[in-house]
Amino acid sequence: MSDILHTQHETASHSHTEGHHHVHVHHKETFITKYIFSQDHKMIAKQFLITGIIWAIIGGLFSVLFRLQLGFPDESFPILETFFGRWAEGGRIRPDFYYALTTMHGTVLVFFVLTAGLSGTFANLLIPLQIGARDMASPLMNMLSYWFFFGGSVVMLSSLFIQTGPASGGWTIYPPLSALGQASEGSKAGMDYWIIGMALFIISSLLGGLNYIATILNMRTKGMSMTRMPLTIWALLFTAILGVLSFPVLLSGVVLLMFDRHLGTSFYLSDIYVAGQALSNEGGNAILFQHLFWFLGHPEVYIIILPTMGIVSEVMSVNARKPIFGYMAMVFSLFAICILAFLVWAHHMFVTGMNPFLGSVFVLLTLLIAVPSAIKVFNWLTTLWRGNIRFTPAMMFAIGFVSLFISGGLTGIFLGNSTIDIHLHDTMFVIAHFHIVMGVSAFFGMFCGIYHWFPKMYGRYMNNTLGYIHFWVTLIGAYLIFWPMHYQGFAGMPRRYLDKSSWVSFNQFHSLDAMITVVTILVFAVQLMFVFNYIYSMYKGRRVRSLNPWGATTLEWTTPIKPGHGNWEGEIPEVHRWSYDYGKDGRDFIPQTEPIGEKESAH
Amino acid sequence: MHTFLLIAILLLGFIITFQIARATEFVSVIQGEERTRKQSNRINAFLLLVFLIVGLFGVYWTHHTLADKTLGLGTSASDHGIKVDRMLKYTLIATGIVFFVTQILLFWYSFKYQEREDRKPYYFPHNNKLEMIWTVVPAIVLTILISFGLVYWYQITGAAPENAATVEITGSQFKWEFRYPGKDGVLGKKNYRYIDETQDNSLGLIWDDAATHDDIVSGGPLHLVVNKPVKLVIGAKDVIHSVGLPHFRLKMDAVPGTPTTLWFTPIKTTKDMIKETGNENFVFEIACDQMCGAGHTGMRGEIIVETQEEYDQWMATQKAQYLTAVVEKQAAAKPAVADSSAKKPADSTATTAAKPDSATTK
Does pTM top 0.95 for this prediction? Predict the structure, then answer.
């Protein structure tokens, strides 16, 4: 089916090339086929991005709300009662509301923004454009992928409005808490919505992922061997493989949870006495769920970070006017991360009573994954070395990404070592670690990609000044928010505590928490400014006047400024070289489409 | 009112920023875009350098201000905790060096190699020797850290010494309960189906097992003897909790249906800690570290570490749960009709037999 569609596109565009300058494959595009049920990968990318942005605003707003509680536990904010009614009676956030906020903040940001919003956007936009294909292997599946994501979003969003509130057992939804409505309000209907929403999300992710893999493996243009692909494509390939192999495990995990919730099975439940009643479930194992969850959960963090590594590598090379250092090492380290990502999941479970020997195996594998990460950092540094760097907003975010990835990556060495993890597990140190290394870093990679490819998406530039302000406030803010949290973690302060005043051990950080909250509000406001810049520039931004505004070698810049469905007007260009010939033989850059010259030096 | 003011200020700031941003764009068109680009390139390169310097100072200052508030790293109150602290210190030094070197290189290179017209970027696609170095060196450093870590890990998670005291700790929404084995040193059998809070049996002890008869149940604080190893047998009734002991640098999850253990030796008494911290209200705390529901934040327990004599004195005042839950009630019920006691599983073999699945015990 997909092959047929594809050939039709090819013939359609070929037959028209001679006659017209401007060829659109679909002649009769209605509003619905162009903007809603579009099968054009570029439009689907925009749909993913804009849905992701909406989710990011919601998820970010949640963090502002719960930071208000953390920063000012004794204050009351009447405005909260105005908006949230009984969830914030007297302007104070109720504990179950607080936990609903943190849970949905995690779920939304991890899955709906940094997975769908990130992979969905850049895999869709870049794969066909950078490998030289007219569209995805199956544009229909691609469209369905977005609409399943949309469906999952609708279900997840509606869970915010039900009587008992959304899921509130943490984004990891460990049973028995998530299985027992008696134990928590959020484990009533909200949990069912969560599971159904995630099930739809996983279908979307699988449809998308299989499509990305098929496209990259089968539809590269002539001459585009695997080793000539830009690193973005390698990264997106490994990301898709990770997703396809690990998301089904989460699906099976939550389906069993659904059975435990409604069909009286005992997969995760045993020996439970709750709300004055002994349950009949026996023989289940609550830890089993954690294994299933983290079998996705850990690859998931690489699903989030790998695409941004690819984006940053590409943007950094373009703007340093230098080839990425160690291309093959970059590919192999992506590959190594992809394999190891499947073998480290239980480092989230060192203190669950797991067999210590098993724990030590996971320590070994976990710290092993630091090696490819270190290789990548050193290669980025060497790429900057003796470059001729242009600080576009995209490049600023690429540099910020590396800084944050170093900071957050190094704290992973603490947590991956089980001895230290005994103390730091489930403390604010963990919050600091993963927010820096996969939260803010991934956002930096995403911003980097948006600023860089915005001209390709809309034929206009984003406003640079706003871009620089966005970068500086976000970078400084990110460090101000998360760096001091490490110290709260050293003090053993547990995560998910909404008020520390009754504790002797954790009661010493009042002013710090207040500072963090103020900075959070500021950083959130600046993100809104970015969204404004995005929308404003879509319609009013400076127009792109040259085909290749950044002077890049890759294929997407050989398409028209505003490519139609099918991307290239004539034939798809042929590729003759790798994508990183910057500064070679005294030339600024050599496009991939240029044949190798006779006297050209080898790379 | 406060909130609206804040929103108004943010909005105003935003409008001003946006107008400036738009104006600079117009100026750049008039001035020549290339010239503006180069100008902003220089500014941002300089700012990256400033960020590096201010950032490094910020790292130092944060450490200077906050290190004292971290429960005194390096002054752990348990033997295992000393190992954890030591490991933490080594890792902090190793990662600290890498942190400073890489961050300095990152921002310094960015500043130094900013675009200049006379600069030709150096075509440097790969170098096997360099790449080998930064594969092997991190691998070696990590191996050293892993080796240290695993030696400690096995010591901490290994079997408890023979002379270790045993205490059971049970989490439930949102409290901790403790059970001491009494004179026989054995925790009697229990089963969650026997839990009956109306009959003073909140842990589900099986009175048929004579080993339960001297078990002491307490809502806390947990009493421990200094310099004597103790093994915690950890369980939960409803959802997963976690026994977090920040001053001892230890933690173990409490999982319903799957008991876990944790052993350590407290090396400082509560009084020692009061002296050391200068805080009269100091108390060792048990923090629930695993999200367990709306009351998670308040799931607090206390530990008193004391000398053997103090412990013995306290223990002498404690009464076995069996006495409160069964013996005294029976004594009180004797004059009356004996029907109320018929419910108690331990009371007659007939009621126990009526619960066939109660044979499984922990």
Answer: no
